[in-house]
Amino acid sequence: MTELKTRQTGATATLGHRGFPHVVSATGGEIDIVTGPSQPGFNPVDLLYASLAACLAMSARIAATQMHVMDKVTNITAEVKGEKAHEGPSRITRFDVRMTIAGDLDADTRRKIVHAAEEICTVSNTLAGNPEFSIELGD
Description:
By secondary structure, this protein is α+β, with helices and mostly antiparallel strands. The chain has two domains: 11-42, no CATH class; 43-128, GMP Synthetase, Chain A, domain 3 (2-Layer Sandwich). The chain contains three helices and five strands, in the order βββαββαα. The strands form two sheets. Strands 1-2-3 form a three-stranded antiparallel beta sheet, with no helix packed on it. A two-stranded antiparallel ribbon has the order 4-5. The longest helix has 23 residues, at 44-66. It is globular, with a radius of gyration of 18 Å.
């Protein structure tokens, strides 16, 4: 039997008196956050959209593989946008997702892949649920 390998998860954001947050993942990945409306890069909401887009794209590939049609797929794109609440609390009220699956597949198979991807994706399942938050004050 093969041993299931797990990936460390989590992130730590550090912010000084000035500047922008610097985020380090549990595995050592790093990203600097931007906040200006025209600054290139990722702000926190962009990262939320990016997480959903990446998860759905990877989940679509998993679904296509499970359906034995991945050899017909040439490209998978998941574009995520959304709408921010007009009144408090600050939050995203709607996610708009457009998935494109290029390749030699009929429309019904593409729809099945997209539906399966949504069921597979940890991020979409989390956002659709009501996860608990546990926030504590550190030393």
